Structure formats: structure tokens, C-alpha cells
Amino acid sequence: MEAFIHPTLSKLFDGIKGFQHRCYALNPDIMKHLVEHGQRPKVLLIACSDSRVDPALLTDAEPGDLFVLRNVANLVPPYRMEGKYDSARSAIEYAVRDLAVEHIVILGHAHCGGIHALLNTLSGQKSQRDFIADWVSIAMDGCYRYVVDQLGGTQTDNGGLVREVDVENLLNHQYLVERAAIRGSLDNLRSYPWIRERLDAGTLSLHGWWFDLETGDLWATDENNTAFLPVIE
């Protein structure tokens, strides 16, 4: 069979062999315990689908450490009941209500293609894709709510959403939009009633992380979700 394996897939198969050696041959108790007792991760990590930002690789996590949800631009849709099919909301619900994770981390990153697609849409470019533009529009409120404080714009009379913002300025400061999208998704998490209950009870914490691809630096939101601060010296 190996003669018919494409070289790209062959590398992946070699990786699986390495995993088998580490977690089955050298440390068989790791997977045996997870099979017999089930998974009990303490962290739901919501990450981008980007191939450069793999949560397990970045955090050096072991099997069973993370319950991972990945999508374009690491977005969390707001709580809604309509619609039958929603992998993001169902994964969040399972992690919070069934696995009882103690932390939810939204991991965003620099040079995010999904956020770039959002900025292209804001600049008036028509998307050539079927689904991406609608999906990344989830980040629109967070973009308006949090970037305006740093780049300027016009707010509503009650200090709510921005009526207009300099899109060219946003394009030149994409990292601010990436961080704003994370903060907006944290706000969306709070719209889920069973997340709100656990936040009020003190049994769940929310965190926003932003990873800099160029330097490897990690930034995190403060406890009030008002700013990003470097966490690794």
C-alpha cells in the first residue's frame, strides 16, 4: 500500500506512527486512562483554522488537555436558537454543559486571512467565496466596538456601535481588528445563558489570546476584557 501513498500524506502517517510510539508504546497509561475514564479537559480552546496556529503544538498540550474548536478567524457566534446545524455553538455547549470546562480561551493570531476578508468586505470588495463573508461578519460588532477607541470614528449618541470608521486605517492596523474580534467573541460568549450562569457562579473564566506569528509573542486580555497585555517576557 505504501507505494500508492502521496508524499504529503506519507508525512502525516509518519506523524501518527510517532504518536503511537509516544502515547501507546512508551506511555500506554495516557490513552488507556482517557479511554476508560473519558475526557476531562479543563480548557475549551477556540482557535483559527489557520495551519500556522495549531493549539496543541503552540501549548505543548497532552492528549486530553484541550477541547478544541477551530473555525475561520476563531469566531464565536452570538447565542441564538434558530437553525438546525451549527458546529460552533454545539461544540461550545458540549464543552461547557457536559465536560464542565473551567476556562474558555479564544486564540487569535496575526495575519489572519479571515479578518483580512472582513476588511476587504468593509472596503467594498465583493467576496468571491460562497460562505466566508457571511461567517466573518460575526466579527463586525467587535471591530466597530473596540477599534474605534484607538483609531477614531463616529459613535452613536449612547456610546454604542460606530456609524462609520476609516477602513483604510483598519487595513493598516489589522492586528487591532484581530484583537477586537477576539474581544467581540468574548462578549458573544457572555450571551449564552448557561455560560453566564457559570460566570456568575465563579466556575468558569473567559480569556482572549492573540499570537504574533512574526515574533512568537503571546498577548492576552486583562480580566475586564479592556486591553491586551504581553504574557511572556
Mean pLDDT: 90
N-to-C terminal Cα separation, in Å? 49 Å
The count of domains is: 2
User: What fold name stands as the CATH topology of the largest domain?
Assistant: Beta-carbonic Anhydrase, Chain A
| Count of β-strands | 8
* Sheet of most strands: 6 strands, mixed
What's the order of the H and E elements? HHEHEHEHHHEEHHHEEE
**What's the CATH superfamily of the largest domain, by name?**
Carbonic anhydrase
Shape: globular
* Rg measurement, Å: 20 Å
- Give the count of helical stretches: 10
Q: Judging by the overall fold, what is the CATH architecture of the largest domain?
A: 3-Layer(aba) Sandwich
State the share of residues found in helices, binned by percent: 40-55%
Strand order of the largest sheet: 2-1-3-6-7-8
Instruction: State the name of the first-level CATH class of the largest domain.
Output: Alpha Beta
Helix/strand class: alpha/beta
| Beta-strand residue fraction | 15-25%
Structure write-up:
The chain is of the alpha/beta class and 233 residues long. The protein has two domains: 1-38; 42-230, Carbonic anhydrase (Beta-carbonic Anhydrase, Chain A). Helices cover 45% and strands 16% of the residues. The chain has ten helices and eight strands. It has helices spanning 7-26, 28-37, 55-59, 87-98, 113-122, 132-136, 140-151, 167-172, 174-189, 193-201; strands at residues 43-48, 66-71, 103-109, 154-155, 162-164, 205-211, 218-221, 228-230. The strands form two sheets. It has a six-stranded mixed beta sheet, covered by helices on one side. A two-stranded antiparallel sheet has the order 4-5. The longest helix is centred in the N-terminal third of the chain and has 20 residues, at 7-26. It starts with 6 loop residues before the first helix and ends with a strand.
